[in-house]
Amino acid sequence: MRWSFRLGTVSGIGVYIHATFFILIGWIFLVHWLEGYDTWVALQGVAFILSIFACVLLHEFGHSLMARRFDIKTRDITLLPIGGLARLERMPTQPLQELWVALAGPAVNIVIASLIYTWLVFSATWEPLSELTVTGGSFLERLMLVNIFLVIFNLIPAFPMDGGRVVRAFLASFMDYTTATQIAASLGQGIALVFGFIGFFFNPFLIFIALFVWIGAAQESSMVQMKSALGGIPVKQAMLTNFNVLRATDTLASAVELILSGSQQDFPVMEHGRVVGILTRGDLLVALARQGQETPVSEVMRTDVETVDACDMLESVFPRMHSTESRTMLVLDHGELAGLLTLDNVGEFIMIQSALRSAPVSRIYNPFAADHRQN
């Protein structure tokens, strides 16, 4: 994800923090400062927020490590001001597996809350809940309540929360996956409408949650419908076969000419008959502004190229296209570059297929039938 900074790697999973997260930290410090608290109390407020996001990070690792048990890798985990995002290479196809992956995150928060509760009881440091405020009271007790809230919030039966995936997993156990997703998404959007309505009268923040849920449910539904439409279709039927390539020794000026003369956005980079990288439109624009158009392509291209076999099914490739940073995947046929696959091209392919299926069946001219009518 752009504007994200790498914190490190845990259990083979890259952990990132988004730049907007630092805005949240600054805002928390400023709020405490403006309310008259001293620097130490303001820093405690920041520490509390960081502790919450540490719990969110463990929540996402719960999803990731459970997915690993089903041979599903996690590309990375990114911390955002609204929570955490674990990018799985694909979602489980079996309902029971999706159920376990969805519940693993909230289970981590239950464990954290239970451990804190046990410590508070045995250490005799429990305080009455009435004495707690958002910024005051027992640090650990407030953190325990936050983890309980995270469990309840994430189990709301609406995408993109874990509860929406639990509902889909349950429905998919006795109906097809696409229908289960549509029902779960409709349920989520219904909940979003309720949140939005309540938010107008009581808490405007619920309106933000409503928009988040509505958009997440719509995206999940459309993605599954598109994935279903791609079933049984090999990549080679949808790939672009008319494309341009660059050499590693070419300059960025050559790439500019190709972009202006056609519609291709990303360019495979070849060297001695083999693919050595890819030059994306975004990287090209950044390099033009910083280095100029005489810069060699080899200095700007990406070497971590996303490839797919021409005989692979679009249904399995489509989720990978959403999780990769590059807009273009290179299609190989027996190790040789055969085409390009982009989300735009897949979308056009689906629209054409849909139009063809909706078209009336053409009547085939039969000369023998015509002669029979004349007689």
Produce the secondary structure layout:
Elements: E1 4-10, E2 13-18, H1 20-34, H2 39-69, E3 74-80, E4 83-88, H3 95-122, H4 139-154, H5 162-172, H6 177-201, H7 205-229, E5 246-247, H8 252-261, E6 267-271, E7 274-279, H9 281-290, E8 307-309, H10 314-323, E9 328-333, E10 336-342, H11 343-358, H12 367-374
Parallel strand pairs: 2-3, 5-6, 8-9
Antiparallel strand pairs: 1-2, 3-4, 6-7, 9-10
Helix pairs in contact: 1-2, 2-3, 2-4, 3-4, 3-5, 5-6, 6-7
How would you describe what is shown here?
With 375 residues, the chain is an alpha/beta fold. The chain folds into 3 domains: 1-155, no CATH class; 157-229, no CATH class; 235-357, CBS-domain, CATH 3.10.580.10. 55% of the residues lie in helices and 15% in strands. The chain has 12 helices and 10 strands. Helix 1 (20-34) runs antiparallel to helix 2 and helix 2 (39-69) crosses helix 4 (139-154).
What composes the largest sheet?
4 strands, mixed
Q: What do the pLDDT scores average to?
A: 81
Radius of gyration: 26 Å
Global morphology: globular
Instruction: Bin the strand percentage.
Output: 5-15%
Q: Write out the strand line-up for the largest beta sheet, numbering strands in chain order.
A: 1-2-3-4
Secondary-structure-based class equals alpha/beta
Number of domains in the coordinates?
3
- What is the terminal separation in angstroms? 73 Å
The low-confidence runs, each spanning 5 or more residues with pLDDT under 50, are: 363-375
Helix count, per DSSP?
12
* Strand element count: 10
Helix content: 40-55%
H/E element string? EEHHEEHHHHHEHEEHEHEEHH
